[in-house]
């Protein structure tokens, strides 16, 4: 079955810098932290993640953002705070940029991601074990871009989010089949993708 998400039509009015949060304590511990209850209160950046962001900011090669929107999870908030402080910008928490919810896999080892991604490849609408479907993630992530496109023009906007949601967003915006969101190489912590 083919599942396509409507691709953004025409040119965008703004430039977007998509950044995956820096290496986190959840990455370090190899656990899935996808619920707001766990992700907002804990599991911020690891020492490695802070070092990644220091290096990124010391060698900044992109347009300077004028706005920063971020997932309200601790690891994305801490990432956004470091960048905002560097450029003297305010922050806006945006809950639609949150991590994909991994349902019953919450708190389990990160090798369980592969089970979800295998199911994604067969059916991007699946909600096995209470996992948020790829289609649902694509809808909330693209809604953020759509609203910014309606409100702003000519700005550079940074969106600070998580690996899976950002890869799903990219698939949606490129008009790729959503069940293929894991086919490009994984976005690494503290990596920036320009739209």
TrEMBL record:
<feature type="binding site">
    <location>
        <begin position="20"/>
        <end position="27"/>
    </location>
    <ligand>
        <name>substrate</name>
    </ligand>
</feature>
<feature type="binding site">
    <location>
        <position position="75"/>
    </location>
    <ligand>
        <name>substrate</name>
    </ligand>
</feature>
<protein>
    <submittedName>
        <fullName>Histidine phosphatase family protein</fullName>
    </submittedName>
</protein>
<dbReference type="InterPro" id="IPR013078">
    <property type="entry name" value="His_Pase_superF_clade-1"/>
</dbReference>
<dbReference type="InterPro" id="IPR029033">
    <property type="entry name" value="His_PPase_superfam"/>
</dbReference>
<feature type="active site" description="Proton donor/acceptor">
    <location>
        <position position="99"/>
    </location>
</feature>
<feature type="active site" description="Tele-phosphohistidine intermediate">
    <location>
        <position position="21"/>
    </location>
</feature>
<dbReference type="Pfam" id="PF00300">
    <property type="entry name" value="His_Phos_1"/>
</dbReference>
């Amino acid at each position: 079955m083919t599942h396509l998400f409507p691709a953004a039509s025409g040119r965008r009015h703004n430039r977007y810098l998509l950044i995956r949060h820096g290496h986190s304590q959840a990455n370090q511990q190899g656990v899935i932290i996808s619920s707001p209850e766990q992700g907002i209160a804990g599991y911020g950046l690891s020492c490695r993640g802070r070092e990644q962001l220091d290096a990124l900011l010391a060698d900044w090669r992109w347009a300077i953002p004028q706005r920063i929107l971020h997932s309200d999870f601790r690891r994305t908030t801490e990432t956004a705070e470091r960048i905002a402080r560097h450029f003297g910008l305010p922050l806006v928490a945006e809950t639609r940029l949150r991590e994909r919810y991994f349902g019953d896999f919450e708190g389990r080892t990160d090798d369980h991601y592969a089970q979800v991604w295998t199911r994604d490849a067969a059916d991007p609408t699946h909600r096995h074990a209470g996992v948020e479907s790829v289609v649902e993630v694509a809808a909330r992530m693209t809604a953020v871009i759509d609203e910014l496109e309606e409100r702003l023009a000519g700005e550079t906007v940074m969106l600070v989010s998580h690996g899976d949601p950002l890869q799903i967003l990219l698939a949606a915006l490129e008009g790729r089949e959503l069940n293929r969101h894991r086919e490009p190489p994984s976005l690494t912590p503290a990596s920036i993708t320009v739209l």
